[in-house]
Amino acid sequence: MQNTNIYAGYRYPPQIISHAVWLYHRFTLSFRDIEELLSARGITVSYETVRN
After folding, report:
1. Element at 19 (helix H, strand E)
2. Is pLDDT of 26 > 90?
3. Which residues have C-beta within 8 Å of that of residue 35, sequence separation ≥ 6?
4. What is the dihedral sign for C-alpha 11, 14, 15, 20?
């Protein structure tokens, strides 16, 4: 069994991507809401990046 990183090639670390996906699905937030929550944690990301 191979250990592959499903986030290979992405700009942000897997923890940030996972957190954004979790926020989106768990709380049914908009992309702009997620952008705002991440910026409160000091992570500068656009809503377009979250959408992708």
Report:
1. helix 14-27
2. yes
3. 45, 46, 47, 50
4. positive
Burial class (CB in 10 A: 0-12, 13-18, 19+), 20: buried
H-helix or E-strand containing 26? helix 14-27
pLDDT band at 1 (very low <50, low <70, confident <90, very high): low
Angstrom distance (rounded) from CA 22 to CA 41: 15
pLDDT at 33: 92
**Number of Cβ atoms within 10 Å of the Cβ of 49:** 17
